[in-house]
């Protein structure tokens, strides 16, 4: 059997093959490692490995299975995790040169859950410094390419994770998402991703600054990436502290009350992406789903710029160096309104943060009212498909040329932050490809703790649109 067989199947099927003893954990690990060896020089998705420990763990699981011992839900499944999550005995950097040689003694809570379920963790996936960009590049490991077009980004910050899942280097990944860092890479790389409701998956061990670990970051969540929605839910149940607290699905996917917010003047969607999203929603309607294209919450999309993005900037401020913090203090009245917002939010006074959080709570109530009449809302993940690599600048100073107009780079997180800062769950599933062949993900958003509903509807989208397909880089 070659490396194009079982290791290309979904995680659920790989686990079936392990249980049926069609393949051993050591053999399955070696298949994934062989593919990594074949693609790494071009893709650069997995940047740290511990093959010896992984083979030892896989052999232990094989022995336990041969003795008919009771094993966990992921027993023998080889996988990688984002380098923003502490992994015991394996270099874990957060993409920051300050932690170049950092080797934690304990796993992040989500990583520990996966390991305790029997996962064989063999590598760490690439990301930007402190998970703070929509590309996957840093000074330690360099840049990760998109497997659909190596000249473009796989997204960020969980970009290495998405690229690794797309190319079958790993069947599942654990990423992080504060402004879209699971959902955007899923969209750009053509895989599935789930941003859980805030607080469902423990954040302990999330590396977002040098002295990480004591506090949970506001807005941020830990969530899975995979090639199928079934695998997303498998991983969500494994890495959550209390998955039983998630609300059950009210009725079948086709009977759910569906709203579609596919565009907005505050953040217009590029023509090639809009075509794909419209085709996907039309296909759902043809499959019997009733979609209300006019339903909106009782607040403006633009609130994301005055409340959502500042809250994200505030939450990421511990990663600023003292020098960066002083420079931001000086730019709080910058002529560029986007730069001024970032500077003020990153240096915000506690009183002002509390007042802004009060405004967030009002938007949360607005969504709570909205979801009394609807079960899910369909939305873009980003206003464009994967863009070419950009050097220099940062999230708030770069621009993009789209449909003949210059757009702020920060608009890339508008459609994801819209739902993230109010703590809602969202599942991204491939909806199709642009005329130039780049993947587009549909974002499926539900009420707080309604993760199972977004996942259930994502399965329907997957069946209607075809879901994951292999990128050109995958042999």
What are its keywords?
475 residues, Amidase signature (AS) enzymes, alpha+beta
- Relative strand content: 5-15%
What fraction, in percent, of the residue positions are helical? 25-40%
Order of helices and strands: HHEHEHEEEHEHEEHEHEHHHHEEEHEEH
Helix/strand structural class:
alpha+beta
Low-confidence stretches: none
| Average residue pLDDT | 96
What gyration radius follows from the Cα positions, in whole Å? 21 Å
Q: What kind of sheet is the major sheet?
A: 8 strands, mixed
CATH-level-4 superfamily name of one domain: Amidase signature (AS) domain
Instruction: Fill in the CATH topology of one domain.
Output: Amidase signature (AS) enzymes
Break the fold down into its secondary structure elements and pairings.
Blueprint: H1 11-19, H2 25-43, E1 46-49, H3 51-66, E2 78-82, H4 109-116, E3 120-125, E4 137-138, E5 142-143, H5 159-166, E6 172-177, H6 183-189, E7 192-195, E8 221-226, H7 229-239, E9 258-260, H8 271-286, E10 291-292, H9 303-315, H10 322-330, H11 337-346, H12 350-370, E11 376-380, E12 399-402, E13 405-408, H13 414-420, E14 426-433, E15 439-445, H14 451-465
Parallel strand pairs: 2-3, 9-10, 9-11
Antiparallel strand pairs: 1-3, 4-5, 6-8, 7-8, 7-14, 11-15, 12-13, 14-15
């Amino acid at each position: 059997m070659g490396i194009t067989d079982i290791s290309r199947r979904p995680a659920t099927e790989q686990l079936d093959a392990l249980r049926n003893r069609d393949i051993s954990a050591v053999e399955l690990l070696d298949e994934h490692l062989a593919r990594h060896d074949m693609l790494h020089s071009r893709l650069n998705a997995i940047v740290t490995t511990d093959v010896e420990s992984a083979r030892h763990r896989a052999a232990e699981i094989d022995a336990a299975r041969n003795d008919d011992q009771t094993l966990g839900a992921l027993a023998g499944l080889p996988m990688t995790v984002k380098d923003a999550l502490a992994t015991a005995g394996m270099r874990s950097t957060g993409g920051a040169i300050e932690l170049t040689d950092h080797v934690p003694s304990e796993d992040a809570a989500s990583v520990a859950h996966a390991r305790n379920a029997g996962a064989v963790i063999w590598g760490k996936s690439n990301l930007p410094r402190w998970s703070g960009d929509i590309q996957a590049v840093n000074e330690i490991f360099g840049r990760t390419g998109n497997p659909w077009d190596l000249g473009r980004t796989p997204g960020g910050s969980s970009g290495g994770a998405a690229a690794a899942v797309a190319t079958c280097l790993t069947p599942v990944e654990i990423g992080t998402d504060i402004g879209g860092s699971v959902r955007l890479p899923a969209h750009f790389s053509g895989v599935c991703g789930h941003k859980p409701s805030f607080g469902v998956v423990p954040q302990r061990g999330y590396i977002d600054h040098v002295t990480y670990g004591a506090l949970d970051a506001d807005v941020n969540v830990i969530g899975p990436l995979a090639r199928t929605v079934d695998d997303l839910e498998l991983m969500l149940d494994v890495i959550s502290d209390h998955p039983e607290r998630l609300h059950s699905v009210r009725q079948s996917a086709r009977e759910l009350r569906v709203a579609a917010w596919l565009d907005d003047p505050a953040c217009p969607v590029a023509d090639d992406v809009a075509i794909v999203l419209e085709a996907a929603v039309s296909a759902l309607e043809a499959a019997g789903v009733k979609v209300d294209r006019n339903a909106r919450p009782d607040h403006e999309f633009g609130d994301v710029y005055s409340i959502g993005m500042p809250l994200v900037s505030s939450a990421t401020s511990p990663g600023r160096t003292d020098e960066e913090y002083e420079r931001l203090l000086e730019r709080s009245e910058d002529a560029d309104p986007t730069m001024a917002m970032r500077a003020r939010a990153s240096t915000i006074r506690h009183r002002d943060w509390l007042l802004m959080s009060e405004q967030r709570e009002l938007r949360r109530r607005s969504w709570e009212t909205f979801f009394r009449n609807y079960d899910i809302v369909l939305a873009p993940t980003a206003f464009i498909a994967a863009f070419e690599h950009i050097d220099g600048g940062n999230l708030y100073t770069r621009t993009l040329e789209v449909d003949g107009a210059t757009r702020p780079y920060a608009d890339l997180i508008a459609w994801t932050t819209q739902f993230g800062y109010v703590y809602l769950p969202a599942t991204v599933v491939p909806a199709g490809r642009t005329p130039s062949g780049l993947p587009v993900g549909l974002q499926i958003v539900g009420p707080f703790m309604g993760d199972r509903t977004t996942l259930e509807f994502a399965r329907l989208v997957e069946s209607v649109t075809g879901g994951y397909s292999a990128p050109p880089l995958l042999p």
